[in-house]
Design brief:
With 221 residues, the chain is α/β, with parallel strands linked by helices. The chain contains ten helices and eight strands. 41% of the residues lie in helices and 19% in strands. It has an eight-stranded parallel beta sheet. Strand 4, helix 5 and strand 5 form a beta-alpha-beta unit. The longest helix is centred in the C-terminal third of the chain and has 21 residues. It starts with a helix and ends in an 8-residue tail after the last helix. It binds pyridoxal-5'-phosphate.
């Protein structure tokens, strides 16, 4: 049951670690079970789906965009989204900032970093991100508040590799905080299979889906 899964996971989280319940592909009735159990932060990866759920669920839900976001979809979520965790280009950062200003908001974002070995994962490489931070634009976008970094490890059973990738992201976070942005505070890393390891490596935001809601039924049309 969603409620039992949630309380089991929450019992293992150290203080200060935010649990994002990843509700993508699950119907509102099921997401509401988590809400009724006290969960308030939810993650979705498709803007249309998030907008639909947002309209049906209570106003105190904090919605996090966690998957690759196309610039032409930003407008759908800009009025209400609480955090966009998947900012993977300057262009996207610029569009989010413009849309936020248009609707009179400042949106919290995370910079998504590619630390996994898999090709298909989105995000800046560490060196690309440091280059972008050397420039002025990321610092000058007044519609966004850069709150930290997000990353995903390779999908593998090799715990050493996963640990290595999480440590890489933690180190990058430390560098960015020291050299560019002292205000950042969020390291979003860890999913159902690896969130405990992620926390050991310094994560303070975990994005957990299947361990709360069970398997997703995904139509591949
Ligand atoms: C789907 C997804 C998750 C949750 O994955 P689970 O393995 O179900 O916990 C976390 N982060 C991102 C970016 C995702 O797309």
């Amino acid at each position: 049951m969603v409620k039992d899964n949630l309380s089991e996971i929450k019992a293992t989280l150290p203080q200060g670690v935010v649990l994002v319940a990843v509700s993508k592909f699950h119907p509102v009735e099921r997401v509401m079970q988590a809400y009724d159990a006290g969960q308030r932060v939810f993650g979705e990866n498709r803007p249309q789906e998030m907008a639909l759920k947002q309209a049906l669920m209570p106003d105190d839900v904090r919605w996090h965009q966690i998957g690759h976001l196309q610039t032409n979809k930003v407008r759908l979520i800009a009025p209400f989204v609480s955090m966009i965790e998947s900012v993977d280009s300057l262009k996207l950062a610029r569009v989010i900032s413009d849309e936020a200003i248009r609707v009179g908001r400042r949106i919290d974002v995370l910079l998504q970093v590619h630390v996994a070995q898999e090709q298909e994962k989105f995000g800046w490489s560490p060196s690309e991100l440091l280059d972008a931070l050397e420039g002025e634009e990321l610092h000058s976008l007044s519609g966004i508040n850069i709150a930290g970094v997000m990353g995903m490890a390779t999908f593998t059973d090799d715990q050493n590799q996963i640990r290595h990738e999480f440590m890489q992201l933690k180190q990058l976070f430390d560098t960015i905080k020291k050299d560019f942005m002292p205000q950042i505070s969020v390291i979003s890393m860890g999913m159902s299979g690896d969130y405990q390891l992620a926390i050991e490596c310094g994560s303070n935001m975990v994005r957990v889906g299947s361990a709360i809601f069970g398997q997703r039924i995904i139509s591949t049309k």
